[in-house]
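S.,

Sequence below, as promised.
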Amino acid sequence: MLKSVYNNGGFWIGRYEAGIEGTTESAEGNSKILELGRTESKHQEIDIDTSPKAICQKDAIPYNYVTIGEAQTLANAMSPDNSKTSSLLFGIQWDLVCKFIEEKEVAKQEEQRPNIVASINSDSESWGNYNNVSLDNLSSNAKSYTTNNDTWSTISDNKAANNDILLSTGASEKTKRLNIYDFAGNGFEWTLEHALEIRFNPCSARGGYFGDDSSFDPASSYGNSGGYLYSCDSSFRPALY
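The prediction came back faster than expected:
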């Protein structure tokens, strides 16, 4: 990764959270798209030869219910050719993206520096899907998952009220900064960062998720987890270098 920084001036990350291949189209009248969505009741371990591929596209159902090892396996397979490596983000890459967003946004409007920094480090309500945020003007192909009924469904009213809803990738233009979607909220994203909790929860997931308040898990935040764990809020984003 460092070699890529020296040779290419940086690295690339997915514009969207990783999604499930075959789920980007409208789900109206097509139950197969929703059936591809991973849920707790039908969780299956990832088999790279038989499981759906991970993609980085708008309107996809997020590739959740994956362990960090499964996420890394899926991310590795996303490389377009042998000249590049695709992977989960390193912790330092996540931090550098936060800094990149801060500097580019500040460059547009210097007097907004305190608000921009706070929106990354303290409260990402202005650009994340959290339980205290309501989103509207959603994509016509947006889909949602609620933990109380354990199913994926279409969104008929073009809105997502603040009631713990996981959304398909890039569902709202409100959830982007510098054309990067869902970096704050929606799903926690596995990274290769080693967490401070070494013994029991050595793995890190970054960026907050839909079930938390935006001030509790802003874009720069991270949570500790065990490497064997998976849930509806565990997702990932590929890095390319």
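Helices lie at 2-8, 31-35, 68-76, 91-108, 113-121.

Coffee later?
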